[in-house]
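To fix ideas, we close by showing one paired sequence and structure record:
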Amino acid sequence: MPTIHVAHSPDSDDAFMFWALAQKKIDTGDREYVHELADIETLNRRALDAELEVTAISVHAYAYLSDTYAILPHGASMGDREYGPRLVARTPKPADVRATIAGKSVAVPGELTTAYLVLRLFQPDFKAVVVPFDQIEETVERGDVDAGLLIHEGQLTYQDRGLQLWLDEGAWWFDETNGLPLPLGCNVVRRDLGDELISAVSRDLRASITTGLEHREEALAYALQFSRGLDDVKANTFVSMYVNDLTVDYGERGRKAVAELLGRAADAGLIPEKVPVSFVDDGER
């Protein structure tokens, strides 16, 4: 019986996606899944050491992992149009955000996160201060940094602290690319598992996502325990932002977005080179 270690962030959207798998709501045959939870930057670093058979990572991190991992065709976290990581500060939005943050200190959730990469594409000249993602709001509020880059639930709670939105990366990317979603996170599988097992694992994870969407209330109730203080309404909003049709399958639009992001990053010298973007074919598309 193959044992597959599956890792993802302890967030309501990921919990929603993995509810059916974690609660054994789907038939996985002889495949046993062991779930591990950690923040996304920790998972990025663990993936560099190929510790996990299946893991969520930042799309940015994939630039350093393409030889070891392939992208599963589902499970994407995409910021589509008006939502994505958010740059916030204590003061109102300036007329020229790009110029204002040049040379300024910005709290970021990790240098392998996609949020960090996109901010470098927007303005390469800022001083990154790495802060655990769930401490960035208070770091900005205290005045330890000039601005902060929020991911996960912080995207919905910053106003409760009186912080001001300076940039929504999803909206900026949508305009920059003539309508592409911003690919933030992806699920990857280690290539050394072999084609047969990889395909079976992919189908299991796809079934977990679709089962969650088909049993939304039950999956959402499970996900609420990972919502880190969001009320039910905000938790539902957050899950809706990041679990949708693009999560079930990237489609051509989602695949193009991943290639576009990594291509632009390579052209800007923010990753070492252009990498082949390889998606698993599980026969379900």
Summary: The radius of gyration is 18 Å. The domain at 3-78+182-267 is CATH 3.40.190.10 (D-Maltodextrin-Binding Protein; domain 2). The chain has 13 helices and eleven strands. The longest helix spans residues 195-214.
